[in-house]
Amino acid sequence: MNFDSPNRIEMPRRVVVTGIGVVAPNGNTLDSFWDSIVTGTSAAAPVTKFDVSQLPVKYAAEVKDFRLSDHVDAKEGRYDRTIQYGLGAAAQALANSRLDIKSMDPERIGIVEGTTISGSESVMKTQKIFLQSRDYRKVHPYNVVAGYCGEGSSTISQHLGIQGAAITYCSGCASSNDSIGHAAKLIRHDEFDVMLAGGAEEMHEMLFVGFCKLRSMSEWLGEPDRSMRPFDRSRNGFVLGEGAAFLVLEERSHALARGATILAEVLGHGRTSEAYHPTAPHPEGVGYRAAMERALKDARTEGCAHCARAHFAHQRPRLGDQAERSDRDTRDQARVWRTRAEAFRHRYEADHRAPHGRFRRGRGSGYGDDAAQTEHPSHDQSFES
To answer: Looking at the predicted structure, is the pLDDT value of residue 306 above 90?
Structure first.
């Protein structure tokens, strides 16, 4: 692509971020979460939600002291934790954006939630009650409904008055990243003016046990805050976490018309599936490279100095390192990251300044504590630029 051409194709509708909400092990609000990041405070700690005495992994990153009633008027006991976290984060994001849904057409706003195991807690509750009693009348009807993985997006839409769409995206560890990419495309295609996009996940016992079996979590028994060491030569696995994060995505002119603060802009999204292995990445990193190239193509550029880069904390360390090394060393990877990156940066900063005259750029990520993760059965890759 010729970046100097006056006929360069522009996106017909630009998508910006105007709100952020988060419920995380290191902060149940955006301010507390950011403070933890700035101070480097780790959320890894001994597991308290279930007994791990017979398991090789002792640490996790659990959400603490979260109360759904602090964010919405809802009965906490009714919902699985995944739904509670998602609803809390979505409500925070909407409040952070200062968007009044009642003042706009409710059918021009929608939600896309990324999740992998939402509903599984209700399924296990229902099974346990029935197996113990053998009496179907003791099964709570809501647990049957909540066993559907889309209950989170449905619950958020009901509580926040979103009538345009309630979509659930499930693509493994790329789910939330894909939800952001899908929501951005819906806005660009003029189906909606505003979208809530993000994801939520709880940590329950069977998920933890499963990752113990996969031997992908850190079995470190020293200080908890040293158990998660991404990019470190001595790392030995990831620390399982839980929580939720949502963004308010908005068509740029819509945001400017209401005087919204623009925090970032979503330029492109790309995803692939290697069709290689249920959990291991392709040793040559072909999926990661292709996903990045697609994100850059979607952003109307061949190279970008500001694109998000995945790491492989959710992989078994040596497999992830091998894929990343192969990806980094190939000629194609060099082309993706170096091709006219500086030319693009200067032109972009000149053409896409935030309302306050300061260039702001967004970096996308996949769901979880460790940025863009890719494993799970389809082994999908997803990147934002």
So the answer is: no
